[in-house]
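User: I need a structural model of Outer membrane porin GjpA from [Mycobacterium] vasticus for a docking pre-check later this week. Nothing fancy, just the predicted structure tokens so I can convert them on my end. Input:
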Amino acid sequence: MAVRQTLRPYAVAGIMIVGAGLVAVTPLAAPLPGIQLRDVALTAGDSSLPDLAAPWIEQFNTASENATTLMNNFFQAPGIGTQQMVANMAGFLQDFFNNPTSNTVASISAQMENNLAAVLTGYGLQNANPDTFSTVTAHTMDGYYHNIADGSGHAWFFGQIPSYLPSNVDSATVLPIINFLASPESGIIMGELGPSISPWIALLNSMTAGDDWNTTLANMVGAFFNGATLNLDSVIPAIEQLGVFPAGMNLENLDIAFGGLLTPGNVGTDSGVGGSIFNSLGISLTGVPAVGTLDYAGQPVGPLGAWEGWAQAIGALLGWDGSGSPLSTVGLPTVPTDFFDDGGASALATDVSGWLQDFFSWL
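Assistant: Understood. Predicted structure tokens for Outer membrane porin GjpA:
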């Protein structure tokens, strides 16, 4: 496409931006205004009490909303991966009872192996096939709506990266690293880091904004639960000095959004729970040929949201349709009345006996 061909020279710039965002944990040193201290008399009739309570109420309400999202998402289908596995096993047993032959057993075994491979490769998105990749990234990046990439989110941006890589770059080495940035494993890493890092980011942000002591403390406590965004605009001049951007193209904003304990994330599924390192990157580029402006807000995710997103991704990989409990409609297997009439079960017993003999002889 014309857009991809035009943007191809900016691959190096994109990789540099992602690398800078991941490596820079604190912005470059800059003079910060001091925290303002106010004398407050904590009496019942003091008119300043509502002002003191306001930032705490805001943080509490945000945490409550996030916790509600996590709770509703979890109780939609608790332990969805296990539920879907049980539903699958019931279906496999019914298939076997309906047709007890070695071919049925082989088919069931193949399906189970494929399901296991999808889960194992989907976690870090290493050597995942296209179907697994598409299913998993719907739970780790925004911009996906029923597995269709939309230009408004990180999924579309991520999808362009492989075609932008310069010809002298070894894609076999680079792509696994890029894929990891969009994986559930990376989202879990970001989620685990968030509650411990976000309060300090909130402190830095409050100092930069000149917040009073009460607002600063509220922001720090709130960040533990709700997350905070680390602004990396201070590293933009250093990136631009590298000369990775063509004339007319500018990096206007760069940040990383860290989640808190209750941050659910924002991805393309109906539940919206989950995330990844790449989805946490906030970036704004102007002067992009044929596109103009690319502007993506970082989407934070916390530990609970990351694990819930991965659990739902497992369910989807095993066959969950993304809505409700798969066990609410599953039927336990029944044995047909003619199960032993056609000789299929006897033939299968003979095959199983041969498999067991081979197994023990191997031991």
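Before docking, keep this in mind: The chain has one domain: 2-22+74-324.
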